[in-house]
Amino acid sequence: MDKKHIYQRRKVTLDSQKEFRLGEGKISGYCALLLGALSLLAVLAYRYPAYLTTIELRQLYNAETLQVVLKYGMYFSLFFGVLTFILNGYKRLGLAGISLTLLAFALGGYSIPVGPVEPMRLSLGVDWLILALLGSVFIFMALEKLLPRYKEQVILRAEWGLDLLYFCINHLAISAILIYGNYHAAHFDWALSPALHAAVQSVPVLVQFVLIVLCADFVLYWEHRLYHEVRALWPIHAVHHSVEQLDWLAGSRGHFIQVFSERAMVMVPLYLLGASEAALNMYVVFAALQAVLIHCNTGLPFGWLKYVLVTPQFHHWHHSSERPALDTNYSAHTLLFDKLFGTYHMPGAHWPAEYGTTSPLPRRFWGQLFYPLKMWLKKWR
Ligand SMILES: [Zn+2]
Ligand SMILES: [Zn+2]
């Protein structure tokens, strides 16, 4: 802990204009629009599964069962849309939701026959986007409302639209990211060891899972640290750090180079280790949930786990622009490597007062996309 630094409480003032309150039609309007948009996307994914779904994910869910979810999604969208008219507020959002749902009905609705799909090499992960968005809203938004860290921070905080855009792009690109990651990992074929694979697969799945977590964490730690400490790499990663209010959606913000490189790097240890599929699936679920959770605006008490795993408080410090926290807390899964390599920062029960980068970044998508290029050209001139 930095003795000279005075830790202050973060001040968050409630923006009552953006708050969701019962009875105004605003909640209904946004629900109608969200469900309408997701319903339309889902219907399109059922119509064109070869182009709009991912093979890897398709194997893990039952498309027919999800049509029941879609059915309820469509009816609830209509219900919330009508509710905006009854409540006489946010009727435009309600109407937009109803229109999208009616279009989804016109395109076949929830009863499009599910058949075998001709796999395409590259497709858009519309199915992944829908499931991740619905799951996040249900799990993480609920968590943030029930156990918030900053109670006054609203769901529609500054730049939420930008982060939703990042969320959509990164989820839609999942197929390209996976292909790139696998392709990259295949370069390490020379290091594959059948003896290691046999040894790893002979231990219980839970031990394999822990091994995967530790190996992935080591690689992710160093990849992350290089992004911070190599000057030419920082502008790419700075995009992730430009967010100034953290919540479940904030973690999605990331330059595509970082998203791709992270996936490619983490594939290498997983590929070399050769763990069983059950252990790998456990890791994928764990990593996906933890990545969202650590950005959440939640004061959920973790007890002794906060001394073992990366928690929201730990990763929030990584996003702080306060001096003692700069370039610390790189780990993605456990605290081991930050402790081992001297970059651990967790000042007791304190939380950051400020988030973001020390020098400002562009606040829009295109500006952030070209920000690294701009910085590199500036240096070479
Ligand atoms: Zn970072
Ligand atoms: Zn982060």
Any chance you could write out the topology, listing elements then pairs?
Layout: H1 26-47, H2 49-52, H3 55-58, H4 63-87, H5 91-106, H6 126-146, H7 160-172, H8 174-186, H9 194-202, H10 205-229, H11 234-241, H12 256-273, H13 277-293, H14 312-318, H15 336-340, H16 365-380
Helix pairs in contact: 1-4, 1-5, 4-5, 6-7, 8-12, 10-11, 10-12, 10-13, 11-16
Condensed summary:
With 381 residues, this protein is mainly α. Helix content is 59%, strand content 0%. It is found in: Endomembrane system.
Keywords:
lipid metabolism; mainly alpha; membrane; 59% helix; binds zinc ion; transmembrane; globular; Sterol_desaturase/TMEM195; single chain; 381 residues
If you had to describe this structure to a student in words, what would you say it looks like?
It is found in: Endomembrane system. Residues 209-343 form the Fatty acid hydroxylase domain. With 381 residues, the protein is mainly alpha-helical. It has two domains: 26-122, no CATH class; 174-380, no CATH class. The protein has helices at residues 26-47, 49-52, 55-58, 63-87, 91-106, 126-146, 160-172, 174-186, 194-202, 205-229, 234-241, 256-273, 277-293, 312-318, 336-340, 365-380. Helix 10 (205-229) packs antiparallel against helix 12 and helix 10 (205-229) packs across helix 13 (277-293). It is globular and about 60 Å long. The mean pLDDT is 93.
Shape: globular
Distance between the termini: 40 Å
Q: What percentage of the residues does DSSP assign to strands (E)?
A: under 5%
Number of domain modules: 2
Fraction of helical residues: 55-70%
The topology string of helices and strands comes to HHHHHHHHHHHHHHHH
Helices, by number, come to: 16
Number of strands: 0
Rg from alpha-carbon coordinates = 22 Å
Low-confidence residue ranges: none
Give a short account of the largest sheet: none
Q: Which ligands appear in the coordinates?
A: zinc ion
The whole-number mean of residue pLDDT values reads 93
**By helix and strand content, what is the structural category?**
mainly alpha
